[in-house]
Design brief:
Elements (H helix, E strand, L loop, with lengths): L6 E5 L19 E5 L5 H4 L8 E7 L9 E2 L11 E2 L12 E12 L2 E5 L7 E8 L2 H4 L18 E4 L1 H13 L4 H9 L11 E4 L4 E6 L2 E8 L4 E9 L3 H6 L7 H10 L5
Parallel strand pairs: 9-13
Antiparallel strand pairs: 1-2, 1-8, 2-7, 3-6, 3-8, 4-5, 6-7, 10-11, 11-12, 12-13
């Protein structure tokens, strides 16, 4: 079997934790699919602009190997892991993914989409139209997914956090609020996530986003998380005297200059 990518997806999600687990659950993850030229794909795109949604078949290009079981983000009652074929895990025998995205517009060989759960530079293998009459089965049983525990938590912000994230929005491409929704919408207690550090006595925690840190407090009975602060993850010594491994220290220096109080 020979399969070649027909194009590449471009978006803001560079790291795996940037991408939502299911794009439709977290709108506001736009991107574009740029198809290869010289393949007569312009003709293949004919009549597609009348569809609101597309099936995108792609390659999990950042993954190596596969696992026979996986731990879901929200496991069913009494289970820690489920079989890979009963999951949407990206670690599969063949690294092939399927995503249902919203089509915004088509311009030449570029398809602008939203609700994408793809990483930047994901190879695209095929595109098919989503047809509700054939593809939608709202009453179909969903196995262990129907046994998932927990509702979405409410996420609020403070003025301190708002000021800092607004500055970051204006000066970087980082989509921190969407990242927070992905990581915390089911609550802060997933111990497998190394990006979350909790102080359960104080009902406070810290979420790491790249080299930034998001402080929050939480109310378990109300299922509410309040984002209290956004700060640099670098110490002053790290910021000015060590190698710029992630090539982001200049933006951190500007951030710290704008907001000298990191507490």
């Amino acid at each position: 079997m020979e399969i070649s990518p027909i194009g590449i997806f471009f978006g803001d999600a560079v790291y795996k934790y940037d991408a939502p687990r299911q794009g439709r659950l977290f709108a506001g993850h736009p991107g574009r699919i740029v198809l290869n030229s010289g393949k007569n794909f312009e003709t293949a795109l004919r009549d597609l602009d009348g569809f609101e949604r597309l099936w995108v078949i792609f390659q999990f290009h950042e993954n190596k190997g596969w696992r026979p079981t996986t731990r879901p983000p929200v496991p069913p009652k009494g289970k820690d892991r489920v079989g890979t074929f009963a999951s949407r895990s990206p670690y599969r025998p063949n690294p092939i993914g399927l995503s249902c995205v919203r089509l915004l517009k088509i311009d030449g060989l570029t398809l602008y989409i939203d609700e994408a759960d793809l990483l930047n530079e994901t190879p695209i293998l095929d595109i098919k139209p989503y047809i509700p009459m054939a593809d939608s089965f709202p009453d179909a049983k969903a196995g262990w997914v129907e046994e998932q525990e927990g509702d979405l938590w409410k996420i609020e912000t403070t003025p301190t956090f708002d000021d800092r994230i607004q500055w970051l929005r204006e000066n970087t491409p980082f989509d921190i609020l969407s990242f927070v929704e992905i990581q915390l919408a089911r609550g802060p207690f997933d111990t497998t996530r190394r990006r979350i550090a909790l102080d359960e006595n104080a009902k406070e925690g810290t979420l790491a986003y790249r080299t930034f840190r998001i402080d929050f407090c939480y109310d378990e009975p109300l299922k509410k998380i309040t984002l209290t602060n956004l700060r640099s993850g670098y110490t002053p010594e790290e910021l000015y005297f060590y190698e710029d491994k992630y090539r982001d220290k200049q933006i951190h220096r500007c951030f710290v200059k704008k907001f000298p109080s990191q507490s």
